[in-house]
Amino acid sequence: MKHPYRIREIASQAGLSEATVDRVLHGRGGVRESTVREVRRAITDLDRQRDQVRLAGRTFLVDVVVQAPPRFSTTIRAALEAELPGLRPALVRARFHLLDGPSVREVVAALDRAGRSGSHGVILKAPDHPDIVAAATGLSIPLVTLVTDLPTSPRITYAGLDNHAAGATAAYLIEQWLGDRPGEVLVVRGRGTFRGEDEREAGFRAETRRRVVEVTDAEDRPDTVRRDIRDRLTANPAVRGIYSLYAGAGGNAAVVEAFRDHPYDVFVAHDLDRENTALLRERKLSAVLHHDLRTDLRRACHAIMQSHGVLPGPIRTNPSAVQVITPFNAPPVEF
Question: For the chain, where are the E strands, in sequence order?
Answer without folding.
Answer: 59-67, 91-99, 121-125, 143-146, 157-159, 184-190, 212-217, 239-244, 266-270, 287-290, 323-325
